[in-house]
Amino acid sequence: MTTTAVAHSIDQFRERFTRIVQQVGRRIVGHEDIVTGTVTSLLAGGHVLLEGIPGVGKTSLVRTLADVLHLKFSRIQFTPDLMPADIVGTNIIQEHAHGGTFFEFQPGPIFANVVLADEINRATPKTQSALLEAMQDVSVSVGKTTYQLEQPFLVLATQNPLEMEGTYPLPEAQLDRFFFKLKVNYPSEAAMHGILDRTTRDADPTVTRVVDGAELLEMRHVARAVPIARPVQAYAIRLTLGSHPTSEYATPLVKRYVRYGASPRAAQALVLAGKIQALNHGDAFVSIEDIRSVALPALRHRILLNFEGEADEVNTDAVVSELLTHVAAD
Q1: CATH entry, 226-330, from 1.10.8.80, 2.130.10.10, 3.30.230.10, 3.30.110.30
Q2: In this predicted model, what pLDDT tens digit does every residue of 297-314 receive, in sequence order?
Q3: Which of 19, 22, 79, 297 has the maximum number of C-beta atoms within 10 A of its C-beta?
């Protein structure tokens, strides 16, 4: 690819990404970093875990994103009595017009482009595991048949960090499937004015479709084609290894409070998100700073604390921040 073609590809990527964030911002106030992280995950082929108290706009953000991208949206309300078949679908008996019966597959709500798994930690582990195959392989199995899901495919799961009664902690294997964990904070006073101005009036802010599914997949290919130098990739690896207490790169907090660190999927997330960060800055290559800027959402949910860490209520964000301070960039 020529230099001119590369520059055009980068400019087109930046322009599309910026327009997506701007259009979502017509309805959603004060969460630009959350929108950016969500779109980054979608372009990397990953999924997002949104953590925040009720009423901060998690559901509205997901629905608006689907509208802007003109993608099929589906919402699954997770409850203790939700069954796996309620998510993936089931075979039902139908009758032929000329007599006799046959089985027909009735797709579940997982068959969409953007799936909102609302309050995912309220469902039983058996039901939570029904998402694993879909999130990892973009397919579901019912009986002896495997059904492919349509690309692009994005699962956005929400959970409330305050209300723990009647919830089931997400299994480590499922947490690791999430590309990013994003924390939706309470809006500022200025943002509250914007929210009230947009939600207490008769007119509902309209959004314009920016890109479609095919263009999103094209953006995904552009992002994966961004080169990364060996030293920058090595830094992403050191950050990942440094989250393990037995590693030579482990920090004091990791050695004292961490039971098990991030998996190789964390290094993949750092590199892929770093590539998208580079494109948004207009760069044709990934820098150390690109990796550092995505470390927190990529690593915070992949670090498992030991008993002492749980007892002392250690925040994994503090562990990641210490890694960024202590792990050498070269």
Answers
A1: 1.10.8.80
A2: 999 999 999 999 889 888
A3: 297
